[in-house]
Design brief:
Number of helices: 7
Strand content: under 5%
Mean pLDDT: 77
Number of domains: 1
Largest sheet: none
Radius of gyration: 20 Å
Number of strands: 0
Order of helices and strands: HHHHHHH
Helix content: over 70%
Structural class: mainly alpha
């Protein structure tokens, strides 16, 4: 009986966390989506350099600031780094949602879809969105330090989806050129 109550509590906590993450992401997406830069296709598909992602989640900067001996500076640095990391996760998630929306619209008009390919794309998309949710919750609770590997994995998956979308667009353009 004790195990079933603990299991139920864990499931409820997980569900509550997912609901919180989705509502928080939705709130922030409305704020960020109003920005002019997100409306530009080249910026939507570009992502940020891997070195930038690595630096956001690195421990080295926090260790340096901690070594300066100022608790106020350390707290301010941690707050700012957390905000930047959360922003990166939100932007990555939003970019991938836009790419998938565009892909779904285009694939809905396509006559020669491959079910296995589309299922693979959908699984990668779902996995990346789940990974972004885990990152978001982890950053919100503990900060970005120590999440470098997870962030690099998310960035790599996002980059592959961006590249696939660019390839899809190039093939679509080539198809228009040949049919014209």
């Amino acid at each position: 009986m004790g195990i079933s109550i603990a299991s139920l509590a864990a499931v409820l906590l997980f569900a509550a966390t997912i609901v919180w993450v989705k509502s928080t992401l939705a709130d922030h997406q409305q704020h960020f989506a109003s920005g002019e830069s997100l409306n530009r296709e080249d910026e939507i598909l570009s992502g940020c350099p891997a070195e930038f992602v690595t630096q956001i989640f690195a421990k080295k900067d926090l260790e340096y600031v901690s070594g300066l001996g100022s608790a106020q500076l350390k707290r301010l640095f941690a707050q700012e780094r957390k905000a930047v990391a959360l922003y990166w996760v939100q932007q990555t998630s939003a970019q991938i949602r836009r790419i998938m929306r565009t892909h779904l619209q285009a694939s809905g008009r396509s006559r020669d879809l491959e079910l296995i390919t589309e299922a693979g794309i959908l699984l990668r998309y779902g996995g990346l969105q789940f990974l972004c949710s885990v990152l978001f919750v982890s950053i919100a609770l503990a900060g970005p330090q120590g999440l470098q590997g997870l962030a690099a994995r998310a960035d790599g998956l996002a980059q592959r989806i961006r590249e696939a979308q660019l390839g899809f667009q190039a093939a679509k353009e080539a198809g228009r050129t040949h049919s014209a």
